């Protein structure tokens, strides 16, 4: 049912059958990680700058930026939904937080509350439209993508507001050799795994995505589940907006575009089915790392932008083909 | 060429370590009907899927029409004259009846463009020849599953096969449709077509099969001409021990009133249905396909909104629950008829399927207790003897009968006061069937009231304390168990020509 469970729980039975099942379910994810390893080897051998603390710190931070939203996206996709609005929401979040904060330490808490509140509000609106007006998630969040982007550009087309000093410092802080932001991502990964494996809400996500009619007849509170999952997803976008503020120092309206596609890509590479009912946290992490390292490596090796896009496209198709094969 | 049209020799097959078939051999002559029987998970469907090319055998060979068959595609196999009616319906729900029948073999004109006129003409002729009355243009999603089954049968027959495999075709058919199926099989026999017929209803096997093959746990137990078998022997071959096929009864008197439905109507077919349900009884609901039995079950469970009437629990007040969730809270459970679309998360594990309605009660401080989940699943597995490789197994990989047991297990776990069972033993093997009957009586003894919808008259008559016969969305009559006979039920069910459902 969920691959993450298997990567951890597979230790008890070591007979051949368990191994066969393990491989069938996790084969593609293992290949994703093998591919990441390959990229790292290429990076180490082909570029002096790749395997430096500075660059690896960078990759870790960038992966966290993408990965946090990807986790939210994964939960939504697990319910057979989709959230196209996350990129625009990151944009509005960085603007709102920068304006509210306005460079003052005293405003940090209000800014965080305002931004997270915005996330909750957007998530609730999505849930409402999907639950009560029965509009497809694709349509709802597409509209929301356009509207939020419009709001963002109306607020300002040039950088506005300012982060406080502590918030800017947050970006560079480390615990041990690892940036705090990467630690945050790590904690969220673990929490998501626990959510899917050990909570009723997590199981309900599988149920709603697995077969919504069966879920309804089983007494699963479908509406509450959908409200919850869209709020969670929007919250991950709001948090990422705050992180972007700490990186940029100002409310830059250029931030956020395209995040929705990158997160969806990472989730798919990670083996989560767009049809719902299936998800893998470790897979999504693999997808995020694969995208992050590929982009980083292509820059390091001086490959041009067009080819970068092309390569990402190839990765998506290859990943999907891989899962199709294994699934049969 | 030998006298056999088909020989499958020493076929073995395993799935991820589960040995589904072990050196099984069968032989078939033209123009005969072969019964294939065995418990749930015995490997019947797997053997036939290998024949159809849907699975590849690990070992063994298939000799068909005198030649060893190499690995062939399913399309080539259909062309070679083998067609299969799968146990799980395999129709495209959005496409019409006619389009489904000719899927992949659509008539085209010289330019290769689809000839819709001819498609509908030919489909119309075929259904007429088979005596099946259906609207050709209706999307399959609009049909009841019995009607969908008829479409499957028509589809298989349209391929002009020399060998037709029917994997539990009758599981969802009853009465006149069943007769129709048998007439079709008889005429196929006369045309020299070989039929392999899988069923858990042994009386059907005795009625139409010439020879019977019994599988158990993936191994061949015996192949016998039908004349050398009686029912008890056949059951013993299947189950591995003698089995007393008697319907268990309750001794106690009728209990208290638990639920009253008055004048219940929905915008489906239900038109003013009233019933009373008492603790510890089994209320049987008989009727033709399309008479509104399933709709009644859904209405009682809050799955379809009421347009009129009321449902009251004896204890509480009005109970017009707006949703299944509320019905479940009120102590109801529904085991639905169509397990694939309403009963099971096919891509999810047995564990989540069994525990989903009671998940919130398996937590401590919001955290699920894995051990408690496992205990629920293991309890169900033992009680219903579910064959599965582990509680992690996705239910789509269980055999049909075991899937049904999982759905039952799910609702037993909720400990309900009223259980509505819509075709509870469909696709379940004889041994397990009587286990389920015993279980129903145990539930009765605990005071649980059961509403049992069934198309199997012996089951209705054998298990029900009272019987309601439905006809065209209404209750046509109530029979006490003493006065109920098959003839009386059929009479009530068909009064006023109630086969309208099929047109
Ligand atoms: N695709 C699959 N993957 C894994 N196991 C499978 C698969 N298909 C069948 N099995 C297993 O093989 C065994 C035989 O299954 P099969 O469907 O052939 O049983 P059956 O005799 O048709 O039973 P039923 O009467 O319940 O339909 C079962 O234990 C089942 O779980
Ligand atoms: Mg079967």
Describe the 3D structure.
The complex is a heterodimer of chains A (328) and B (503). With 328 residues, chain A is mostly helical. Chain A has one domain (51-327): ABC transporter involved in vitamin B12 uptake, BtuC, CATH 1.10.3470. Chain A contains 14 helices and two strands; from the N terminus they run H-H-H-H-H-H-H-E-E-H-H-H-H-H-H-H. Chain A has a two-stranded antiparallel ribbon with strand order 1-2. In chain A, a hairpin with a 2-residue loop joins strand 1 and strand 2. The longest helix of chain A has 31 residues, at 16-46. Chain A is globular. Chain A starts with a helix and ends with a helix. Mean pLDDT of chain A is 89; it is low at 1-14. Chain B has 503 residues and is α/β, with parallel strands linked by helices. Chain B has two domains: 6-239, 3-Layer(aba) Sandwich (Rossmann fold); 257-331 and 416-502, 3-Layer(aba) Sandwich (Rossmann fold). Chain B contains 17 helices and 21 strands. Chain B has a six-stranded mixed β-sheet with strand order 6-7-8-3-9-10, sandwiched between helices. In chain B, a hairpin with a 2-residue loop joins strand 1 (6-15) and strand 2 (18-28). In chain B, helix 13 (370-384) packs across helix 14 (400-412). Chain B starts with 5 loop residues before the first strand and ends in a 9-residue tail after the last helix. The relative contact order of chain B is 0.12. Residues 498-503 of chain B have low confidence and may be disordered. The complex binds adenosine-5'-triphosphate and magnesium ion.
